[in-house]
Amino acid sequence: MIHKVTPSPGIAALFAGWEETMIYSCLQGIMGELYAGPPGSPKTAAALLGDFCFLAGSPERALVQSVLKACSRDFMILIPQTEQWAEQIEECCRESAKRVVRYALKKEPEVFDTDHLHRLAHALPKGCTMRLMDEELFLQCGRLGWCRDFVSQYPDYKTYRRYGLGVVAMEENEPVSGASSYSGYAGGIEIEIDTREDRRRRGLAGACGARLILECRKRGLYPSWDAQNLWSLALAEKLGYHFDREYAAYELIRI
Fold first, then answer.
1. Helices 230-239 and 204-219: crossing angle, nearest 10°?
2. What are the backbone angles phi and psi of residue 237, rounded to the nearest 5°?
3. Is the backbone of residue 96 left (phi > 0), alpha (psi -120 to 50) or beta?
4. Would you state the pLDDT for residue 255?
5. Do 194 and 178 meet the contact criterion of CB atoms below 8 Å apart?
């Protein structure tokens, strides 16, 4: 039987070597949920946080089905640990799941060029200012569709202040771009960056990303980045990250 579980060494062992900070968040009991097989010596497990589900251990279709039942989201990203897991996802979800390529970045805490980041952070278009995420912005971003994921995984600002960090570019008192923590774990955050559609291609994403990385470094946090597409990969490399590898994921849309 598949059931929700609390973090344990046995569950952590199934994810050993998988450098995904959202998995860290779940294993540390900070954010997200864990699902696994029978207690005692679990052989299969899933880490679920927001839109993301990481499947590890012995591939079991029952785990995929249980996670889909437990999660009511219309959109999910399923990430298999192995190709055998990928086969289980395809068999279970069929045409609802689209296989895509994502891009992992190397986790190198000392790689960033601080001077370069300062230059990028100050290259804001005329009329724009930058603000750290505060309670007012937390609530404001939560009401706006395009930037809701800056704060959507945190139940309230108190939790965000403890585990999250973000910066927002403002124009006429309205958010137009930002970089924030999609999730947090002990030692760092997972970065989420977006720009309002009518303000893109003006350097705002780069400026916000640079400022957030600098703020993380001040606090001794690691700003982890996982690239959804080649545009995101190019922006990450501009900020100082280095490409690690491509990996497969499945985007599931439930109508």
1. 50
2. -65, -35
3. alpha
4. 66
5. yes
| 46 half-sphere exposure, CB direction, 13 A CA radius | 31
pLDDT of residue 78: 97
Q: Answer whether residue 195 shows pLDDT above 90.
A: yes
Q: Helices 114-121 and 204-219: crossing angle, nearest 10°?
A: 130
Tell me the per-residue pLDDT of 47-68, one tens digit each, with 9 for 90 and over: 999 999 999 999 999 999 988 8
Q: pTM for this structure?
A: 0.95
Residue pLDDT, tens place only, 76-99: 999 999 999 999 999 999 889 999
Residue by residue, DSSP assigns the chain as --EEE---HHHHHHTTT---HHHHHHHTTSSSEEEESSSSS--EEEEEETTEEEEEES--HHHHHHHHHH---SEEEEEESSHHHHHHHHHHHGGGEEEEEEEEE---TT---HHHHHHHHT-PPTTEEEEE--HHHHHHHHH-GGGGGGTTT-SSHHHHHHH--EEEEEETTEEEEEEEEEEEETTEEEEEEEE-GGG-SSSHHHHHHHHHHHHHHHHT-EEE-EESSHHHHHHHHHHT--EEEEEEEEEEE--
Across residues 218-226, what is the average pLDDT? 97
What token pair was written down for 72?
A: 């009511």
Give pLDDT tens digits for 96-105: 999 999 999 9
